[in-house]
Design goal:
- The chain has 16 helices and 25 strands.
- The protein is globular, with a radius of gyration of 22 Å.
- The protein is of the alpha/beta class.
- Helix 1 packs parallel to helix 4, helix 1 runs parallel beside helix 13 and helix 2 crosses helix 4.
- It is about 30% helix and about 20% strand.
Length: about 525
């Protein structure tokens, strides 16, 4: 093909999000050469280009993640200690929360996460063991029987293509884009209850009924300022739009209550003495109270709220034109939220609007104040040797049995089964969970031999995805996949054989343990 070149490596990772970055790091540490693509110019996915501070669990400071993920967290805090004028109390705080956002124990700026990830990758990028192709997306895949033999990618907006070849291919794209290109058996959207046996599954499967996406924005607030943006194109639509589960417009201070999603809860803009939950400090990432000198005009927060969850349609399994329409729709919803906050949002003092709300593109590396990419909660998912389901995680369904233990575990995590409103049925729930493990069987496709999922695309149901999609779990999945590719390459065995052979499984798990990957929860940990 005209204008096409070829690159070869030991492992090809398509997608430079959180799982892809962790996979590249693990594979490089194991001695493999890595080619990795990234759709934007920032590695890190959720943490960076999508601007979502880490959603985690209450044990995260001590356990429940891999050692390299905790190293990332430690490096974030050290970055602030090295580079910011912190107060003595903040500098000496071992669990420093830079933004003091209450959604996370580590609410921090996306640019800091990017700098830390680049530091962690630096020895391998600088020596050529990892090569990253930015602004690059997959467009085709070559296969022979049950093997992938190459992936063709397009870099930038030009017509030149690059064919990437390796022994192993990891799909770390946000939507599982490599799966259909390579003919990998997969599912998307909602499964039927008759198939999964899950109490919260739909009666009939619907591949287009997917979790909402959110296009995050960064804003600060200048009390005497007026930074009102032009009225967004779709503002009138969103101003009147009422979700099926609410009697209030989506642009209101009422949203589903996480404690009981059949009920609504009232929120407001800023902390107050009336006991109404403030959204401003929910995802606050800059808190000048921790500094000894002023560096900007005040606090910065991220708009990733129920008010800008976009569930008007799926971006997976639809035509390119419809996908583009929904991606722009998500942008329009977030811009409409900004405009509503500036002009019409009810204030507790009886007034309307906060014109001092200002978009902060500099925080996200963009001109318009919106993240480089939307936060995509749900991907295509492989059909694997084992499929994780609601019954494996739900606290109610497992009862006193506690966390489900897998002999082939490759990691652990914990988070509620958290489904944001879906695009067809608008289901939403927040089901209490037991801490969970990640079975190796969920990383191995039923047929294809040399492709591995490395993020939110492992073999699990839509409901299980509600908890396995969060930051520490995605990192763990990527690290396990990168290590598996390295182990299978060195031992000249296929990933399925690693799971089937007690000897190989034990040796592979020992490699994970040596890296600081926790394979099982212990009762002692969970008592803390």
């Amino acid at each position: 093909m005209a204008g096409e070149q070829e690159k070869r490596s030991d492992v090809v990772i398509i997608g430079g999000g959180l799982g892809g970055t962790a996979a590249a790091l693990a594979a490089a540490k194991a001695g493999l050469r890595v080619l990795m693509t990234e759709e934007t110019d920032w590695l890190g996915g959720q943490l960076t280009s999508q601007a979502v501070p880490p959603d985690e669990h209450r044990w995260i400071e001590e356990s429940g993640s891999t050692a390299s993920y905790r190293e990332f967290r430690s490096r974030v805090r050290e970055y602030y200690r090295r580079n910011y004028p912190l107060t003595e109390d903040s500098r000496s705080n071992p669990i420093l929360n830079p933004g003091n956002g209450w959604v996370s124990r580590l609410a921090h700026e996306p640019k800091v996460a990017l700098a830390v990830l680049q530091e962690m990758l630096a020895p391998y990028v600088n020596t050529g063991r990892i090569e990253v192709l930015y602004h690059t997306v997959p467009v085709a895949a070559d296969t022979e029987g049950d093997y992938v033999t190459g992936v063709t990618v397009r870099q930038g907006t030009g017509s030149d293509l690059i064919r990437l070849r390796g022994a192993y291919y990891l799909d770390a794209t946000e939507c599982g884009d490599l799966l259909p290109l390579a003919g990998v058996e997969h599912v998307s959207g909602a499964e039927a209850r008759s198939e999964t046996g899950e109490p919260h599954a739909l009666e009939a499967a619907d591949p287009l009924d997917m979790q909402s996406i959110t296009h995050v924005a960064a804003v600060d607030y200048v009390p005497d300022g007026d930074y009102t943006i032009p009225r967004p194109r779709d503002y009138d639509y969103w101003r009147e739009y009422v979700p099926s589960f609410s009697q209030y417009p989506i642009l209101s201070w009422f949203a589903s209550d996480a404690d009981d999603t059949s009920k609504l809860k009232q929120f407001t803009m800023f902390p107050n003495e009336q006991g109404i939950v403030s959204l401003w400090d929910y995802r606050r990432i800059v808190d000048p109270a921790i500094w000894t000198e002023p560096l900007n005009d005040g606090e910065v927060t991220l708009l990733n709220w129920a008010l800008n969850d976009y569930y008007a349609g799926s971006i997976i399994g639809v035509s390119p034109e419809e996908r583009k329409r929904h991606l722009e729709g998500a942008r329009q919803l977030t811009l409409s939220l900004v405009y509503w906050l500036q002009t019409e949002a009810p204030r507790l003092d009886g007034g309307q609007g906060y014109p001092g709300v200002r978009l902060r593109g500099d925080v996200l590396g963009t001109e318009d104040g919106l993240a480089k990419a939307p936060y995509i909660r749900e991907s295509r998912r492989i059909r694997g040797l084992y499929t994780i389901a609601e019954q494996d995680v739900s606290k109610e369904l497992r009862g006193p049995a506690g966390p489900k233990r897998y002999e082939d575990s490759v990691g652990v995590g914990s988070y509620h089964l958290d489904l944001h409103p879906t695009t067809v049925s608008q289901r939403t729930f927040y089901i209490p969970n037991h801490p969970y493990e990640i079975p190796l069987g969920s990383l191995i496709p039923v047929r294809v031999k040399n492709l591995l999922p490395a993020c939110k695309n492992i073999s699990m149901t839509q409901i299980a995805n509600g908890c396995y999609r969060l930051h520490p779990t995605e990192w763990n999945i990527g690290e396990a996949a990168g290590t598996l590719a390295a182990y299978a390459s060195r031992q000249q065995v296929e990933p399925s054989a690693v799971r089937e052979s007690a000897e190989h499984l034990r040796a592979y798990q020992q490699q994970l343990i040596a890296l600081g990957v926790q394979l099982h929860w212990t009762p002692e940990e969970l008592e803390v």
